[in-house]
Amino acid sequence: MSDALTKLIAGLSPEKRALLAERLQPRPEPVAVVGMACRFPGGANSPECYWQVLSDGTDAIREVPAERFSVDDFFDPKPQTPGKMYTRWGGFIDALDQFDAAFFGVSAREAARMDPQQRILLEVCWEALENAGIPLESLAGSQTGVYIGLCASDYSLLQFSDPTQLDAYAATGNAHSIAANRVSYVFDLQGPSVAVDTACSSSLRGAPRVSKPVDQGVRYRPRRRLPRGPLSARHHRVLQCADDGLRRPL
Predict the structure, then answer these.
(1) I need a surface site. Which of 65, 99, 126, 154 has the fewest CB within 10 A?
(2) What pLDDT, in 10s, does the model give residues 201-247?
């Protein structure tokens, strides 16, 4: 700082010096949402379809599809019946088994071990980039961050119930950390790769981790995806589910 500038600042009143100090403080950079993709019940597999479901007031809750499991084998209206669930209803995403493994460079054997959440993540991240008009090659090798909130692990419970069938892909296909790391690896993103698990608040707790590096001047491009796992009987043990399958604010 030059002597002239130092003298000029020294001659300011305390109020003006305080105002100058405030103006010189670094300001948070706005975070822009430039691309979106989604998977929601009711066939809402794009932002446009999701908006249509909302604007039409569509009830996307339905009885457990037969291709998921036989609801009659697990349903009992009495909430405390061991090993049972007291609702026949839920919100279900379509075509979970239609993952194009070859498109993402994943072998069929590995894809079979991957939690559907990991498969959906790859799909929606690709679609979000398309939606934003961002060529994937422009991000390859860049300091792009991947921030994911997720908590369910039903698929791992299905696989780990039979230890004789486990292989290396069962571990990488079900670890929450790998859900974020897989996106980073497949798209060659070199920034932070973080999975946040705080149960139902995972999205709320994950959002600050997206914006903080931007506020600090670090040029990451965050990708945050928040899939939810399939219906699990464990939630019925603590009476978390409504018997009609509808969600309500806590």
Answers:
(1) 65
(2) 887 776 766 666 555 544 444 444 433 334 455 555 555 667 776 76
For residue 98, what is the DSSP state?
-
Domain boundaries, the chain: 38-237
Cα separation of 141 and 189, whole Å? 6
Which residues make Cβ contacts (< 8 Å) with residue 132, sequence separation at least 6? 34, 35
State pTM to two decimals: 0.76
For 38-237, which CATH superfamily applies? Answer: Thiolase/Chalcone synthase (3.40.47.10)
Helix/strand/coil percent split, the chain, to 5: 40, 10, 50
- Separation of CA 191 from chain center: 17
Rounded distance between C-alpha atoms, residue 159 and residue 51, angstroms: 35
With tokens 């939690």, the residue in question is 115
Decide: residue 53, CB within 10 A, 0-12 exposed, 13-18 middle, 19+ buried: middle
CA dihedral 151→156→158→161, nearest 10 degrees, is -130
Q: What percent of the chain has pLDDT over 70?
A: 82
185 is written with which tokens? 């690896």
pLDDT digits (tens, 9 = 90+) for 117-140: 999 999 999 999 999 999 999 999
Handedness of CA 163, 165, 169, 173 (dihedral sign): negative
- Helix axis angle, 176-187 to 116-132, nearest 10°: 40
Cα separation, 220 vs 192, whole angstroms: 8
Query: What b/e readout covers 64-81, taking b as 16+ CB neighbours within 10 angstroms?
Result: beeeeeebeebeeeeeee
